[in-house]
Amino acid sequence: METGLRPSSAFAAFSAFLVLVLIMSAARAEDIVVSAQIGGDSQRTRFVAFVSKAVEFRIFSMADPYRIVIDMPETDIQVPGGKGRGLILSSRSGLLAPGKSRIVIDLAAPARIEKAELLPPENDLPARLVIDLARTTHKTFLASVKAPPPAPKPDESQSAAANLDTGDRRPLIVIDPGHGGIDAGAIGRATNTPEKEVTFDFCKKLASKLEATARYRIVMTRTSDVFVSLDDRAVMAVKAKADLLISIHADALDPKRLGIKALKEVRGGTIYTLSEEASDEQANVIAQNENKVDVQAGVASEQTAPVVSEEIASILNDLENRIKKNRSTAIAHYLIDHMKGKMKFNIRPQRSANFRVLKAHGVPAILIELGYLSNEDDEKLLISEEWRTTISSVLGEAVNAFMSERQAHIPL
Ligand SMILES: [Zn+2]
């Protein structure tokens, strides 16, 4: 289903089962802290999100997995927190691109959109998006699904600038803060800190450390809290003819999959390179987690997602990518060697797996998991500004040392 809907003033549309908890925190409407709600059961479910202003929106369904996606101009959105109920598993919201906000609702079962309307602010209530869902069959759901709109292109000003031949021949390093916008990444178990905040702050610090050497051109794949697809990140590195891509993450293990005990035991940094076959099961799980973020943000379906290079098996066989593979492995090894006294590493710090973001054709690329947001001790470090300053500096020095040695001894 795809419908352009205008805000309606039908406040009466709220039904009795919906309980709104409003906590007035300040006089301004934008400052009202509210708890958005989900009501109903596994046959019919109502979803309410609070928005900072009444805007036009677009709603559509996506399959694999079942999702409802709502796009609107940039708006502050509050979706129901915590676990879903009825037909709704969970929901999230955030920036999909500059000026464009998105809500994604994960469904527990195929559902039909019975009603979707945006109610303007009224009395003490902020504007709110009300969606009524009814259980349907898999077949009917699929019939309602149209091709999703293409992922918005990232702000190309940076990569375009990097592409311009300014005569600057300094090595170009692309720094990639994992996640962003509607894709929060992993969430810290103790503090609820989203991975996207940890990676962004760390990358800004790493970028200024490397820029301070005046030896490199630096490009960040995102410079604000915005969603950028994995392929666009990789493409940015290819277009910029980067000498190195460093993707920064801080993931979490799933206690349901590995048990609480593993969460306590598994910690420390890991540096990954691209490989068709994962080096081990844990690397495989982490890569799968990372690779599904585009699907979760509603920009691609698992079966149809395009890849940067056609077939990873074949790209790794061609010469350019053999060089890429060797350089990536060499830098991963070098960084661990130079940082291990200063940063807590995982017991197996160097691993490889099929990470989509690392498929930048011909560009040496590493993905650094700074630690695990699922581990209490790691989380304390990851959320510490001081730790991020120290470790980004240590990493910057190690990258600089590697690049300097390479330039001095090995022709690039
Ligand atoms: Zn991540």
From TrEMBL:
<protein>
    <recommendedName>
        <fullName>N-acetylmuramoyl-L-alanine amidase</fullName>
        <ecNumber>3.5.1.28</ecNumber>
    </recommendedName>
</protein>
<dbReference type="Pfam" id="PF01520">
    <property type="entry name" value="Amidase_3"/>
</dbReference>
<dbReference type="GO" id="GO:0030288">
    <property type="term" value="C:outer membrane-bounded periplasmic space"/>
</dbReference>
<feature type="region of interest" description="Disordered">
    <location>
        <begin position="142"/>
        <end position="163"/>
    </location>
</feature>
<feature type="domain" description="MurNAc-LAA">
    <location>
        <begin position="234"/>
        <end position="400"/>
    </location>
</feature>
<keyword id="KW-0378">Hydrolase</keyword>
<dbReference type="InterPro" id="IPR002508">
    <property type="entry name" value="MurNAc-LAA_cat"/>
</dbReference>
<dbReference type="InterPro" id="IPR050695">
    <property type="entry name" value="N-acetylmuramoyl_amidase_3"/>
</dbReference>
<dbReference type="GO" id="GO:0008745">
    <property type="term" value="F:N-acetylmuramoyl-L-alanine amidase activity"/>
</dbReference>
<dbReference type="GO" id="GO:0009253">
    <property type="term" value="P:peptidoglycan catabolic process"/>
</dbReference>
